[in-house]
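dumping this here so i dont lose it again. seq + smiles for guanosine-5'-triphosphate
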Amino acid sequence: MDTIFAPITPLITSSVIVIRISGESSKDVFQLLTKRDNSDIKSNVSRETKYAIFTTKAGIKDDVLYTYFQNPYSYTGEDVVEISFHGNPVIVKSALETLASIGMRPAEPGEFTKRAFLNGKIDLTQSEAVLDLIESKSIIGAKCAYEQLNGSLKKDIEKSVSKIIDIMTIIEAHIDFPEEDLDKSVVAQIKSDVSELEKMLNELIEIYDRNKALRDGYSIAIVGRPNVGKSSLMNYLLKEERALVSDIPGTTRDYIDAVVHFSGVPINLIDTAGIRFTDDDLEKWGIERSLKKLSEADLVIVLMDASMSNDKEDDNILKSTQNNNRIIVGNKVDKGIVEQSRFDYLVSVKGGKGIKRLENKISEIVSNNDSDTFASNAMVTARQKALYEEALKYIYNVLNVIDFEDYDALAFELGAVLNILEEVTGKKYTQDILNNIFDNFCIGK
Ligand SMILES: Nc1nc2c(ncn2[C@@H]2O[C@H](COP(=O)(O)OP(=O)(O)OP(=O)(O)O)[C@@H](O)[C@H]2O)c(=O)[nH]1
Ligand SMILES: [Mg+2]
């Protein structure tokens, strides 16, 4: 394989810029590195960091730190050299040109991680976890990604794979020597193993749906007719005076958003323009934009004035949010409560009454802290989810045919499940599968 290189930090003016080189001829870079006394750098132990002077073809010198990783003790499993330059893009670009001139080529996006996969350092679930670890927007998400990078999901899948192989061995032996029926206890064991796999895959699919917030972030829109206290609630939750508050209905003319964390999950909180019938074109426009935000939100807080009964506008908003994931909250309880049963939660933003309970509810919704299953550490990707769903179809077939003693059919269905699970870990892969995964990576990863 070619020897590849790329900056693994942004190529911008900064304190340090690091270049990674990976491949058989990584050590060729030593011809560009000398010690202080101009002597060559030669022998190296399996991992070490040293000081050197790097001279580019254009004659630029820089004092650098380089780390040598002898294969397989590196990220890619190949010989790797990482060099830290002073953070001047001019120096580093010249160094990159110099590397190209000695027979190395720039790495493609994700190519280092792809090589780690091809060299057996990590499987595909771990490769995907690399991306999740970099991109996850929450504390929990980062923790999950780390576990997965360490092989938590890989181990679960590999365990299932070896169980299926065991079952297939029994069944194929039986196909070859069909004189006797399979022992009842063996059939029962197969059923229980396959049911367990079914349960695990269903849980992983559920995790994919539940972890949406960890993966993509979560948005909550506060909606309601003018003057019910939407901007006041927004400010209270943000703990800052972000939105204008006044007793004039129609204060918020356009939606406002800001990020707030609940249980370590970042939430895009949106305060919308009070929704009402109006002839004011500008206000109409703001209401339209707010309605659009409402339709895109993961959760809607419908805010109403608890001290007054519903008016036509309240009813309209309740109707138009009935298919949303919503919480109905009555505000201004300090002024009284009319018909308490209309509300899921009652608060008074002025004074903060009841808000803790509302915040706890939001935390519960976005963090899914009820997930204590073995796989809760998994960051299930869309690719994996599709494969799990496909595998389940064959698993249901297995459970259907097992009692009919059609062992050829059973072997076929199990073989299909096996193939799919091996695609999850990447034991079996095609170039298309790899491209789909690694094309999403950035250069240098
Ligand atoms: N008594 C009482 N007044 C409140 C409470 N919460 C907000 N208010 C007042 O209600 C008025 C309207 O508050 P806003 O937060 O601007 O209401 P809004 O829903 O954003 O209104 P628009 O932007 O016009 O749609 C202000 O005078 C607030 O001080 C509360 O819990 N009790
Ligand atoms: Mg407002």
